Every structure is written in structure tokens, then in C-alpha cells.
Amino acid sequence: MELAQVRLLVTDFPACYRFYGEVLGLTPQSGAVDGPYEKFSPAVGSAGIALQDRSMMAQVLDEVGDVAAGHRSLVVLRVDGLDAYCEEITMRGATVLHGPAPMTDRMRVAHLKDPEGNLVELQEWLLLRG
Questions:
Q1: Using an 8 Å Cβ cutoff, are 7 and 50 in contact?
Q2: In angstroms, rounded to a whole number, what is the distance separating the alpha carbons of residues 8 and 17?
Q3: Cα 33 to the chain's mean position, in Å?
Q4: What is the DSSP code (8-state) at residue 35?
Q5: 128/130 Cα distance (integer angstroms)
Q6: What is the pLDDT of residues 12-32, one digit of tens each?
Q7: Where does 12-116 show beta strands of DSSP type E?
Q8: CA atoms of 44 and 107, how far apart (whole Å)
Q9: How far apart are the first and last CA of the chain?
């Protein structure tokens, strides 16, 4: 078994597309700015984050048509140079809600939200520094 992607069901597809592509700097697979689906990939690794228009999925599962309430997901991305990356994405429109700060003695983190309110955690693994 291999993790292929984490898929987020969104209502404002263009805003989320911009966030994951332009703000976080992930690479879109096809350029479907208006959806209803797009997969984004980081520079390394094979798994990705995909966006799917919530109304499209509601055609398959009625319950998905309900408005999402509360925090239903947490997307975690590992980055090198957390401080510099946070400065970079802030200049591109992100709002860092917490951090960068130590989470454990092995990791520093920062937290932000995408336009739909999904939490995004940026991790810098300190053990990889050697």
C-alpha cells in the first residue's frame, strides 16, 4: 500500500488552488485553476495534496454536501529552513498563526490555515541537520 494523496473537499476552489500553488509553492498537476479537481505535489516525495470541489463529491455522497464544521483535517508538510520559508509564504499572502516554534526537541513547527480553514502544519525536522 502507498499513500497517493490527501484530498481536501473545498467550496472555494480558486482560493484554495492559489493557496496551495502560489502561496505554499506546491506544483499543480494540470493547471485546473477552477477545478473541480487538482493534485499538488511537493518538490520531493510521491504523495500529494489534492483539492476536490465539495459539490462534486456531494453527488456521490449526500452527506458531504453539508458545510464542514470545526477542524476536520491537518495537512503536514516538511520543510527545510522553516523561518525562511515562513517569511517567504507570508510575503505571498499566508498568515502564520503560530510559530515557528519548537514542538519537541526534534522538531520545530509553524501553523496556518488555507482559505477553507483547513489547518496546515509546517515541520522542520531538527534530527536531519546532523
A1: yes
A2: 11
A3: 16
A4: -
A5: 5
A6: 999 999 999 999 999 999 999
A7: 27-28, 37-41, 48-53, 74-78, 96-104, 107-113
A8: 19
A9: 30
Name 130's Cβ contacts closer than 8 Å, sequence gap at least 6: none
User: Of 31, 123, 35, 38, which Cα lies nearest the Cα of 75?
Assistant: 123
Question: What single DSSP character describes residue 28?
Answer: E
Query: With contact defined as beta carbons under 8 Å apart, do 13 and 53 qualify?
Result: yes
| Residue in the structure block whose three cell numbers are 508538510 | 77
How do 96-104 and 74-78 pair as beta strands?
unpaired
Q: Give 82's DSSP letter.
A: H
pLDDT in tens, 102-121: 988 888 999 999 998 888 99
What's the predicted TM-score (pTM) here?
A: 0.78
Judge contact between 43 and 24, C-beta under 8 A: no
Give CA–CA dist 116/113, Å, rounded.
8
Q: Which residue has the cell 522553516?
A: 82
